Amino acid sequence: MNRLSVKQELHREYLKSSVWKKIRLAALKHYGAICSKCGEFGSDVHHKTYQRWGGNEKMEDLEILCRDCHVVLHKVERASRPSKKKRRKSIHVTALFRYLSKKQRDSLVDRFSCQTPNDIYLMILDAEKGSEVRKAALKISGADYCHGLPPRPKKKRRKRKSKARNTPPY
Question: Which of 73, 83, 88, 104 has the highest local Cβ count within 10 Å?
């Protein structure tokens, strides 16, 4: 059984406080009860950053999410948690589909006119044609980028010819 860290325990206590309840209501009033990821009804207020956590949050530190998108966002954050040496927020391309909720998968199926969610999975894996689907899935999931695709061939850079200057020598 996983034990909570001191920070996690403090955060859970803070979320029960009257200070947080006021900030949460202010955020819902400011943004409206619309999920910033999928556009459905949302009532979860998510901290984008914890720099001003504890009653000093600014509205730009918070976003409104539906429960499904909030769960997915935290799954992606846990899956892409960097080692202590590196700081990156990414997810492997084969895992991207797995972290989406059923509602998010269905929205991608509708958006890209597919028959089944498996078609979306195959499109995500397609290195060349799947970039638009991956971008949409990354936006919904909250990950910055995905890795694990074969590297794209580098474009050859043309050398510029130096132009002789036609200026008088005086």
Answer: 104
**Average pLDDT value for residue range 112-140:** 83
The pTM (predicted TM-score) of the whole model is: 0.58
**Which residues make beta-bridge pairs with 158?**
none
CA distance 130 to 47: 30
| pLDDT tier at 29, thresholds 50, 70, 90 | very high
Nearest one of 77, 17, 19, 73 to 44, comparing CA atoms: 73
Burial 118-153 (b: 16+ CB within 10 A, else e): eebbebbbeeeebeebbebbbebbbbeebeebeeee
Residues 78 and 143: beta-carbon distance below 8 Å: no
The CA dihedral of 56, 58, 59, 64, to the nearest 10 degrees, is -50
Q: Are 24 and 55 in contact (CB under 8 A)?
A: no
pLDDT tens sequence across 43-60: 899 988 778 777 888 888
67-77: pLDDT as tens digits? 888 888 887 77
**Three-state SS letters, 45-76:** EEECCCCCCCCCCCHHHEEEECHHHHHHHHHH
Rounded Cα distance, 141 and 79, in Å = 12
